[in-house]
Structure formats: structure tokens, C-alpha cells
Amino acid sequence: MPDITPLRSEDHAEWLALWRGYLSFYESALDDATTQHTFDRLTDAASDLHGAIARSADGRAIGLVHWLTHPATWTSTDYCYLEDLFVASDARGEGAGEALIAHVRDWATAHGSAKVYWLTAQTNETARRLYDRVAARSGFIHYQIAL
């Protein structure tokens, strides 16, 4: 089972490699300033963004997860949104994704959140097999307006 630890500033190079892999997986790109700003927020204890990194038994960084909480109208507590989850392709199927989700679930429970939720691409069949095992589909369809 991978070791999951909070993201720290000294994890930058390893996180960056995983982050770039995640963006590539979704055929996306971000400018360097946005990427640096994201990492800075993830490693700032005062930030509302949180991050963790998964490491294999030999200490290699193999996955990342980012999350945040927000107020909700259907509960008196917050919801926890798992925004980014990525496991390196050569480490998939070894439990890192499930461990990262469990880490966020445990964090959200300890912080009083009412639920953890996330989105994924409909075509992300490999991840969806994991998600179908550890969570329930909400039945909602996601819409957005780019600004």
C-alpha cells in the first residue's frame, strides 16, 4: 500500500512531473505561472486548497490528489470537492488511487464535511472502475460556462 503524505514545498519537482502527467492525460496545458501559483496554494497552510502525494514502497512519487471544501445549502457543514486525482501510468492498479481517495475521505470526515464528491471524464474508464467500487454515482450531469 502506498504511503500518503501531505504535499510539502520540498515535493515540488516530483509533484510537477505528476501534475504535467495529469494535464497531459486530460490533453490540457497551463502556463507556468498558474502551475506555480497552484503549487504555492497547495503547500500554504493558510490556503483553502489541500494536497497530498502518494509514494511507492521505494519512496518514488506515484500519485497526487488535491481537494477543497466549500459551504453547501443542503447541509449545515461543508462539502469536500476532490478536484484532481492522478496516478502515474506505471503505478496504476496497485492501490494508489484508492489510497488517495481514502486519504481525502478521512481528512473530510475529521474536518466535519458532509460528503466528498468529484468529477471525471466519461471516457476515463479505468478510473471509473475504481470510482464505482469506492463511491456512488450521483446521477447528475455536469455543465459549465467558461468565463
Question: What's the name of the CATH homologous superfamily?
Answer: Gcn5-related N-acetyltransferase (GNAT)
Structural class of the secondary elements?
alpha+beta
Overall 3D shape: globular
Overall number of strands: 5
CATH first level: which class? Alpha Beta
Q: What gyration radius follows from the Cα positions, in whole Å?
A: 15 Å
Helix-strand layout with pairing:
Elements: E1 3-6, H1 12-25, H2 32-42, E2 49-55, E3 61-71, E4 78-87, H3 96-110, E5 115-117, H4 125-134
Parallel strand pairs: 4-5
Antiparallel strand pairs: 1-2, 2-3, 3-4
Summarize the structure.
A five-stranded mixed sheet has the order 1-2-3-4-5, sandwiched between helices. Helix content is 34%, strand content 24%. By secondary structure, it is of the alpha+beta class.
